[in-house]
Amino acid sequence: MLEAGELAPGTALRSLDAIHTVAALKLGRGVSWFVTYDKRQGEAAADAGLPVTSPR
């Protein structure tokens, strides 16, 4: 399984954003949408396969 330190190497993704993203990944199909206001986190989550939305 992907761990937070391996999520988006070489990017400016913050550690807590990485931890939350990996936690959502570990839930698997239990996650309908990954909601974030953070562009970097959203990109990392989408790249990892999560369906991402950002309220405006």
Looking at this protein, list some descriptive labels.
56 residues; mainly alpha; 2 helices; 39% helix
The main β sheet shows up as:
2 strands, parallel
Count of extended strands: 2
- List segments where confidence is low: pLDDT < 50 over at least 5 consecutive residues: none
Shape: globular
Helical content stands at: 25-40%
Total domain count = 1
Oligomer: single chain
Q: Tell me the series of helices and strands, N- to C-terminal.
A: HEHE
Calculate the mean pLDDT score and round it.
Answer: 90
Quick take:
With 56 residues, the chain is mainly alpha-helical. It contains 2 helices and 2 strands; from the N terminus they run αβαβ.
